[in-house]
Amino acid sequence: MVRWRDEVPTSGGVDLPPDARSMDGLGRNHSLDTALADLVDNSVDAEATDILIRIVRSAGRLRSLYVVDNGFGIAPEAIDDAMTLGGRRKYRTGDLGRFGIGLKAASFSQARSLTLLSRDQRGRVVGRRWELSPQQSGFLCGVVPEHFAAGELDREWNLPQGAGRTVVRWDEVTGFPATDDPARVEEYISRTLVQIRQHLGLVMHRLLAAHRMRIWVEVEEAETGECGSRFGVSPLDPFGYTRTGKSGWPKTLVGRAEGLTLSMRCHIWPGRSQLPEFNLPGGADFRQGLYFYRNDRLLHAGGWEGIHASDRRLRLARVEIDIEDDTIGLFKMNPEKSKVSIGPKFAYLCEEAQAEDKTTLADYLQVAETVFRDSKKRTMQRRRMIPPGRGLAPPLKKAIKREIPLLEDEEPINIRWAAFADESFFLVDRDNRTLWLNERYRATLLGGRRGGLNDMPVLKALLYIIMEDLFQGEYLGSKDKDNLEIWQELLTVAAQGEKS
Ligand SMILES: Nc1ncnc2c1ncn2[C@@H]1O[C@H](COP(=O)(O)OP(=O)(O)OP(=O)(O)O)[C@@H](O)[C@H]1O
Ligand SMILES: [Mg+2]
């Protein structure tokens, strides 16, 4: 019997550099938007203030994609390291880079060719090009002639002058539609630009909100050199509610064990929010759970990662966690920087974690569920109202629909202006389902602003709230009639007061 031995011996060695085709297998977890986020990371590390993503269309087809920035650029002596797989540099604290593979993996997940061109702070120009081709076996990286590199760097990018400039160019982008059918290309462009802006707005929201940089997207027509509209990326903050779902929250829960500390900021969204910050891409139900940030860049947006099961009733619960670098046993980010996996110690620290008032994670989930249930119950128990009709602005109508169960069979109530023979402020016209307002007060109340069908939303919302039930039922009761008299008297006096 040959017994197990601790050491495995070798005698001599053979040099086995990786086959260049291994590049083809890189970044398989990327999609176009996560790949672009990786390039944006590099621009942020280069202290760019402006980053432009431009897609080029030629003869109807989408051909290339550029990411251009005005950061400090790459020195000629550093560019080979930059193009090397795993070529790491000295990272500063706060840098987003870490593995030395982002640029390559992101690019080859989306394109067959990667060109990197840069002008450094001293004005020196340099360029390299990697191409994936079935014939290629070695790791021979192309040197781009300086005049071509300079030409690309000096194209009209319309970016503010920065310390330097870097252009990343992708050709043969695999995800681009293989057609010049204008309808399909247009459809792809509009869908893709929205996706890119949403994803970058989300993962970069803290950096964008802190004005670290601006990000733009546009499409260039190669034949004319002209670009369509340039769209900016706005921050999309997954914790950007206008008021908390429960007073006293968010709370910070801290768990400590074996020299490790885990700090979790537990938020509760208000029920029924329609904000894009709540309805993130993918849908709010799938965005509950953990959000990991590293150096203010969001790496992971939702999911409980095994510490709890996803549940519709927990859709208001989002937990903000800042991590530094991988901590063994606690968490690990994937090289695509699109996901954080948690280790066994994470679950343990979650169990231990407490807020100053002793709130635990279990308590938090309970509260989040209660807030969700109460908000649902409250809506169900609310008095049903007649839907709003003409005269109220669409956002107001939407809010009413969200907050109040409506009598869908009833004809809606309009709030409109009309010329009155007398001074009264309003007229309840049950036959025409309209609350008329006296035109003679309109200009004064507008105070110089322009009127329109949906003008004065605050006034109309108030009138809808107090008068809606006058339109319900067959007759007006005596209490209703009395109220009408009081409101008419008070509002008319008030409106005349505004006029004088
Ligand atoms: N836009 C840019 N401006 C300046 N330097 C850049 C730019 N893009 C890439 N580089 C240089 O190229 C190097 C390699 O980039 P790459 O994304 O492959 O790795 P990384 O950023 O170091 O690490 P990670 O794999 O975590 O992204 C960077 O470290 C940086 O020095
Ligand atoms: Mg990088």
UniProtKB/TrEMBL annotation:
Coiled coil stretches, renumbered: none
Signal peptide: none
InterPro entries in UniProt: HATPase_C_sf
Record carries keyword Lipid metabolism: no
Keyword annotations of the record: ATP-binding, Nucleotide-binding
Chain positions covered by the region annotation Disordered: 1-22
DNA-binding among keywords: no
Molecular functions per Gene Ontology: ATP binding
Taxonomic superkingdom: Bacteria
Protein name: ATP-binding protein
Species: Streptomyces montanus
Lineage of origin: Bacteria, Bacillati, Actinomycetota, Actinomycetes, Kitasatosporales
